Amino acid sequence: MNIVRALKCRECGQEYDIQPTHVCEFCFGPLEVVYDYEKLDGYFTRELIESRPQTMWRYKELLPIEGEPSVGAQNGFTPLVRAKNLEKALGVSELYIKNDSVCYPTLSFKDRVVSVALSKAVEFGFKTVACASTGNLAGSVAANAAAAGLESYVFIPHDLEQGKVLGAGIFGTRIIGIKGKYDDVNRLCSEVAGKYGWAFVNVNVRPFYAEGSKSLGYEMMEQLGWKAPKHVVVPMASGSLCTKVHKSIKEFIKLGLIEDNGTAVYGAQATGCSPIAKSVKDGTDLIHPVIADTVAKSLAIGNPADGFYANRVINETGGWAEDVSDQEVIDAMKLLAETEGIFAETAGGVTLGCAKKMIESGKLPRDESIVLCITGNGLKTQEAVLDAINKPRIIDASLKDFDALAEADGFQAAA
Amino acid sequence: MSVSVRIPTPLRKLTGGADEVTIDGANVGEVIENLEAAHPGLKERLCDDNGEIRRFVNVYVNDEDVRFMDGRGTALKDGDEVSIVPAIAGGR
């Protein structure tokens, strides 16, 4: 059942037919997909959803494509992990990790948005797809385009982590490194998109692309037993994920799939690029663009497109925003790995680091359910932790040498 | 006070194709009123119903965003350059 109604300007309310465009012609506001939810009355039930394969597409009625996805049909449905060890370490009673570090196929939540964007691009008749990316998106566009038989161009800042560059290049995409920050890449891509007539997933196809993030929220609620958490912490770059997780919760409430649990949404940024967190802390909705400088390169967007809306979601839901230093990011990556066996990328360190800080400051209560959204995989940002982890101790292949080492560690041979 | 105002492509239909116009005004608000008088229709594209500059319209005076100065009250002096730049929605 297709319930997509139109594209609607978030600022002036002007509606447009479904088409590859993202900016209101009248007031330059961003366009968003709107739906006729009442068409789903009595049809879109928990039972229907549970009867479907475990992919993000089990919620396809709430994603803006027609019929079945042509790209990324297997994507999504990542684990929600009860983080018992981390609960003890942080002194909280109910903590979960939504673990998109193992999202199929490229190990980040970008596989969600890309499968929607590329399925839509195919519908629109595009043959070439492209993106401006801090890395994860580049890899996801390249991989999903390859599998779908589409041509692709990915544009990245020239100084990304090796794992991100390699994780895109392997798929045979045309990879372009731009001398500049992500914000420069984004500006160039806006110009390229206008000139070449390609589907830029986060430019002209952005309204559809962004909707894909909602699937993370849907899964979180279903996996909690058809319940929203009291608190959810999301990393913020453009701020889009923050707004879409909130939208997913509102939609499930509207559709009667869950009760309203008064969920508060919290945003996490790195101090070296924290324009949204700063606006929340300063009590303003004006986002002052910054020149990004942080180890969390996937979040390094100095001029966040959805900053205003993320700020509003955080304020309206009674959440908060926090930021952490590069050292805190690395410490949190290690904490997550050592307590839960999850190797998140730097953005995951930002999310956990900020959550820890907000628990300590009392912004996040210790006795209510909290979900942390981990959105990318640490194997792609190895540089960040290279100097922070234990190196192997090198010994000869000799039992005597090992015995000495085990003894130093305090281990005795079994009797 | 006479300043030059740079007009972005999507609004040039309203200025007869001109990419730059010269307008009088002691501050940004006055310039917008005088722009409207000279090129009717421009103001509603730049400002919302309350007269505030729309969220996705950026107005710069000599490369400084007026939001971080005095907004519509930002004072102008002769020869200042005012740029109107639609914000580019995009990014991850």
Describe this structure in words.
- The complex is a heterodimer of chains A (415) and B (92).
- Chain A is α/β, with parallel strands linked by helices and 415 residues long.
- Chain A has 14 helices and 13 strands.
- Chain A has helices at 46-50, 84-90, 110-124, 136-148, 162-169, 182-196, 206-211, 214-223, 240-254, 275-282, 307-317, 326-340, 346-360, 399-408; strands spanning 4-9, 15-16, 31-35, 80-82, 95-99, 128-132, 151-157, 174-178, 199-200, 231-235, 264-270, 321-324, 370-374.
- In chain A, helix 8 (214-223) crosses helix 9 (240-254) and helix 9 packs across helix 11.
- Chain A is globular, with a radius of gyration of 22 Å.
- By secondary structure, chain B is of the alpha+beta class.
- Chain B has a single domain (2-86), classed as Beta-grasp domain (Ubiquitin-like (UB roll), Roll).
- Chain B contains two helices and five strands, in the order E-E-H-H-E-E-E.
- In chain B, a hairpin with a 2-residue loop joins strand 3 (57-61) and strand 4.
- The longest helix of chain B is centred in the middle third of the chain and has 11 residues, at 28-38.
- Chain B is globular and about 30 Å long.
- The termini of chain B are far apart.
- The A-B interface holds A 11-12, 22-30, 110, 132-134, 136-137, 182-183, 186-187, 189-190, 200, 202-203, 206, 237-238, 240, 286, 288, 301, 303-306, 308 and B 10, 45, 48, 54-57, 67-68, 86-92.
